[in-house]
Amino acid sequence: MNSIQDLFQRLTLGVYVIGVVNGETRNAFTAACVMQASYDPLLLALSINRLHSCYGTLRRGQAFSVNVLKTGQLDLAAHYGRPARDDKLASTSWMTGITGAPLLRAALAWFECEAVAEYPAGDHVLVVGKVIGGEVLDSVAEPMSYRETGDLDGASTLYPARFEPK
Ligand SMILES: Cc1cc2nc3c(=O)[nH]c(=O)nc-3n(C[C@H](O)[C@H](O)[C@H](O)COP(=O)(O)O)c2cc1C
After folding, report:
1. Could you tell me if the CB of 82 is within 6 A of ligand 1?
2. Would you state the pLDDT for residue 79?
3. Pocket test for ligand 1, best of 15, 21, 22, 30 (most atoms within 8 A of CB)
4. What's the rounded Cα separation, in Å, for the pair 33 and 15?
5. CB-side exposure of 28: number of CA atoms within 13 Å?
6. Looking at the whole model, is its pTM more than 0.90?
7. How many CB atoms lie under 10 A from the CB of residue 106?
8. Cα 31 to ligand 1 centre (Å)
9. pLDDT under 70: residue ranges of the chain
């Protein structure tokens, strides 16, 4: 891990499985870059790489779920952190939200959102969603922290060795 990656891993982030839907097409991906963006209305924001297949589905379907992972659920973080070769959701128990987005039964909690805005952000896109539902499924478990995932997302190859001078 280089020093810039080490620095960025001091930002406290959770780990989530973002479910996306467009008609009968559903997929999900692991994301750490998720935050509450507003109280009134309740908005969540996530940062997604525009090259992910999930981005196209999200863009067309305009809805997503945010499934909060529990500490220790590294298998789920890894599974949904890989590109879809086949149906990633086939091996997981999930139910359908009111938008049609997949809600993982094993999650600590879930939120369901309608996408309301998007903003370009470097090699990612910030997608803002209005929260239209949610539930805590396990009030005892602790949420997973991004730091717990080490280099599971391969981010060590994404951080530069040094900051760019102004
Ligand atoms: C711990 C972890 C955190 C991740 N965080 C994000 C994230 O915040 N945004 C993002 O676009 N991809 C993130 N990824 C990468 C995606 O999960 C991964 O590229 C996935 O293959 C995308 O799914 P898709 O190819 O089915 O669209 C993360 C992966 C892991 C393992």
Report:
1. yes
2. 98
3. 30
4. 8
5. 30
6. yes
7. 16
8. 5
9. none
